[in-house]
């Protein structure tokens, strides 16, 4: 079927006074906000309570303006976001040449039409002309001229302490700069990104330097990443224009974070906050980029000053972290496979490579002998063998950005990746793709602090290194693609549609992760998506929730079952540990009670859970080249797991499964449980909920669209009730009060002790007349691809 809901989204024209749009990883949209420097709480944006991702607004506006001229916009129930005034303001910043080029390209329907204003997801033209969508490939005959030239630098015996003689040496060698302008002219994506980078650079040029603000448990990480953003953007702008105003403005930032500008910047002895070493690493990376990319611009005195600051506040603390066994600041270097190891080693590596050869203290060479083998022992295992980032889907951004930066810099500067490009990083881009629902990420656990300089653009690097063109084709349409790294990691010779031949379903079966992604389409936000997980409740760097069995559902352009995201990172004991008695599990958003799963006896799940996947099946649909896609008759997918180990001795059996019904237009969540304690089926939604008089049906409504949720086993006495997303009065009191979850309702089925087969059917009320069906009752162990045909 073709999906038509009553709330077709229009492109975004968000606040043009900010370089970032609402609800993105650059400005965390869960209620666990980091307080901004002015002490004000982030303003409510009047949108979904769920976690969202997005990007600098300039790219959204550019695409929106172009599309408005070519194909117009879809009618929405909220048209205010696409006002003519906002479009005119945006259009003024776009050169006529790039717009004309984009118009010609977009008129063929090759690219995403726009970006959804609520969830920041790309919107694709719904067309059947498959001639414009081809099989993914690099260096096709039509675009062979846009391949990068070969690098003339090579190392007979590569070593991390032996670097190329020319500059820049980090990520973007001169041979790429030599052809970049031609590539920008020929490729509309590079043209969009270039415009956006300059737009952001211009905004920052007119801003004050980043202000020091210490944010408790997150230190000055936001400040470090904002500095790094500016270092990249100003360096890029100078090298593209040779206009020294950009170098002069960058010098102000460099002086500022060194404590040598007009205002103070942290304590003299530790300006870059080594106690929260992520901050130190990101400042070091920013300094390294600025030093290397503008090497020929800086005077000898400026370079000497930069080296002193980089070593004094960055590299020296890196050496302390590695060499002082009693120092806490280096905890991340041992048995830490998550983002901390990647970011810390990455930042120290970029800073060290930048000054290697000029550094007369030996700090850079000493560190390079340490960071590379340590990253291979730790960060290289950031993704599990199925590609999933074990911390959370959102921490994937931080880890893969740090790893891609480090690996790319080693390749360009020294001629080798030293084994860092393993198979898990080949797969991790696909994990990210499948973890992205039709409206937003399947974002279990913590979603992290503001991302700023951390994006998904490492996918471009991995796509090129592993010859995976579909990854590049996917990422180039995403809202965070406009970034200086993209200009050099993206291979503009790529051609085709990422969805052509891409399976709709995929399970990820590493024992830590255990999750499934199933959808009806890759290119229509109004389709259906299911994500469900089992997996372990430990081994995730204390970023997970107690959430075996958790699920999310998208349909008709909305997320109906969603995640609450972060708690307050500065709350006492939030990151204390992941043992059963940890106070982390007292916070509503982290405890089992705050998840979309089964809660037994109002008790948290067992942290020692070891679920097993019992079944997975798919009709193996692949979308093909057209964006307008209808699944074939009988198309389905299902997945179920034994999550008994997530509960205690009162529960002798607990299985949970999810599947598509009725050609992927309905979804079924099924639980088979035997327990001697009462339990609850719980689901969080930001829909308005109305429960029928007999309690067996709930109608969820978002912006006029409806989802009927029905209990298919009413004989058991199961009935829906609702509550606010707040803790039970009998729960342990957390060290600090929970953040409010305003606008979120919990849909609940309360059951007494016993044995049950509880089946809950989700039926979107499609606007094209598609009818719902009631499937037969089938035990999980008898599920098959045809078991629910009617």
From TrEMBL:
<keyword id="KW-0812">Transmembrane</keyword>
<dbReference type="InterPro" id="IPR008929">
    <property type="entry name" value="Chondroitin_lyas"/>
</dbReference>
<feature type="transmembrane region" description="Helical">
    <location>
        <begin position="50"/>
        <end position="71"/>
    </location>
</feature>
<feature type="domain" description="Heparinase II/III-like C-terminal">
    <location>
        <begin position="539"/>
        <end position="724"/>
    </location>
</feature>
<dbReference type="Pfam" id="PF07940">
    <property type="entry name" value="Hepar_II_III_C"/>
</dbReference>
<dbReference type="InterPro" id="IPR012480">
    <property type="entry name" value="Hepar_II_III_C"/>
</dbReference>
<keyword id="KW-1133">Transmembrane helix</keyword>
<keyword id="KW-0472">Membrane</keyword>
<protein>
    <recommendedName>
        <fullName>Heparinase II/III-like C-terminal domain-containing protein</fullName>
    </recommendedName>
</protein>
């Amino acid at each position: 079927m073709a999906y038509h809901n009553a709330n077709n989204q229009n492109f975004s024209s968000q606040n043009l006074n900010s370089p970032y749009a609402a609800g993105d990883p650059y400005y965390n949209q869960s209620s666990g906000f980091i307080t901004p420097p002015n002490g004000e709480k982030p303003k409510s944006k009047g949108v979904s309570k769920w976690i969202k991702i997005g990007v600098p607004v300039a790219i959204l506006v550019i695409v929106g303006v172009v599309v408005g001229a070519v194909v117009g916009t879809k009618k929405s129930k909220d048209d205010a976001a696409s006002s003519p005034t906002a479009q005119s303001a945006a259009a003024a910043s776009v050169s006529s040449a790039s717009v004309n080029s984009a118009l010609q390209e977009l008129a063929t329907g090759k690219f995403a039409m726009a970006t959804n204003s609520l969830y920041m997801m790309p919107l694709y033209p719904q067309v059947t002309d498959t001639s414009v969508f081809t099989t993914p490939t690099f260096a096709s005959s039509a675009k062979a001229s846009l391949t990068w030239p070969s690098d003339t630098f090579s190392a007979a015996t590569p070593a991390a302490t032996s670097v190329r003689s020319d500059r820049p040496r980090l990520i973007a060698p001169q041979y790429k700069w030599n052809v970049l302008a031609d590539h920008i002219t020929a490729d509309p994506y590079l043209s969009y990104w270039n415009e956006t980078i300059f737009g952001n650079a211009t905004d920052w040029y007119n801003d004050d330097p980043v202000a020091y603000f210490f944010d408790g448990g997150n230190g000055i990480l936001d400040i470090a990443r904002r500095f790094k953003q500016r270092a990249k953007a100003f360096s890029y702008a100078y090298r593209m224009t040779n206009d020294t105003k950009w170098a002069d403005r960058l010098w102000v930032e460099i002086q500022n974070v060194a404590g040598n500008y007009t205002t103070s910047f942290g304590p003299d002895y530790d300006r870059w906050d080594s106690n929260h070493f992520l901050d130190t690493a990101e400042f070091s990376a920013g300094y390294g980029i600025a030093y290397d990319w503008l090497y020929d611009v800086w005077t000898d005195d400026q370079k000497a000053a930069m080296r002193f600051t980089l070593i004094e506040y960055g590299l020296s603390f890196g050496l302390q972290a590695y060499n002082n066994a009693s120092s806490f600041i280096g905890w991340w270097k041992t048995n830490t496979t998550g983002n901390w190891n990647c970011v810390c080693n990455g930042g120290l590596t970029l800073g060290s490579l930048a000054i290697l050869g000029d550094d007369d203290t030996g700090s850079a060479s000493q560190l390079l002998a340490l960071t590379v083998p340590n990253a291979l022992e730790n960060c290289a295992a950031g993704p599990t063998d199925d590609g999933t980032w074990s911390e959370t889907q959102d921490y994937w951004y931080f880890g893969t950005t740090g790893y891609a930066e480090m690996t790319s810099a080693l390749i360009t500067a020294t001629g080798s990746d030293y084994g860092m490009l393993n198979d898990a990083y080949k797969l991790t881009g696909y994990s990210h793709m499948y973890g992205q629902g039709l409206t937003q990420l399947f974002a279990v656990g913590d979603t992290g602090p503001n991302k700023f300089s951390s994006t998904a653009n490492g996918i471009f690097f991995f796509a090129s290194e592993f010859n995976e063109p579909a990854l590049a084709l996917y990422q180039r349409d995403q809202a965070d693609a406009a970034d200086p790294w993209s200009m050099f990691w993206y291979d503009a010779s790529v051609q085709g549609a990422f969805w052509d031949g891409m399976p709709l379903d995929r399970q990820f079966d590493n024992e830590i992760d255990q999750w499934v992604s199933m959808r009806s389409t890759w290119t229509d936000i109004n389709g259906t998506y299911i994500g469900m997980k089992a997996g372990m409740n430990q081994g995730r760097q204390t970023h997970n929730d107690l959430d075996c069995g958790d699920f999310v559902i998208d349909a008709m352009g909305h997320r109906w079952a969603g995640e609450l995201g972060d708690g307050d990172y500065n709350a006492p004991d939030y990151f204390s540990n992941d043992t059963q008695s940890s106070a982390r599990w007292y916070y509503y958003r982290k405890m089992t009670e705050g998840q979309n799963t089964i809660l037994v006896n109002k008790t948290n799940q067992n942290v020692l859970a070891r679920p097993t996947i019992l079944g997975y099946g798919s009709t193996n649909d692949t979308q093909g080249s057209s964006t307008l896609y209808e699944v074939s008759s009988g198309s389905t997918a299902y997945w179920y797991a034994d999550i008994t180990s997530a509960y205690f001795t009162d529960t002798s059996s607990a299985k949970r499964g999810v599947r598509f019904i009725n050609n992927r237009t309905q979804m079924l969540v099924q639980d088979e449980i035997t327990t001697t304690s009462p339990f609850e089926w719980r689901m969080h939604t930001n829909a308005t909920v109305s429960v029928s008089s007999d309690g067996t049906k709930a109608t969820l409504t978002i912006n006029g669209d409806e989802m009927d949720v029905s209990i298919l086993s009413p004989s058991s006495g199961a009935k829906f009730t609702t509550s606010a997303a707040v803790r039970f009065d009998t729960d342990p009191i957390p060290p600090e009060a929970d953040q409010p979850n305003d606008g979120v309702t919990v849909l609940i089925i309360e059951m007494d002790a016993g044995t049950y087969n509880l089946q809950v059917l989700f039926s979107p009320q499609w606007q094209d007349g598609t009818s719902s069906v009631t499937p037969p009752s089938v035990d999980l162990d008898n599920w098959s691809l045809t078991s629910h045909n009617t």
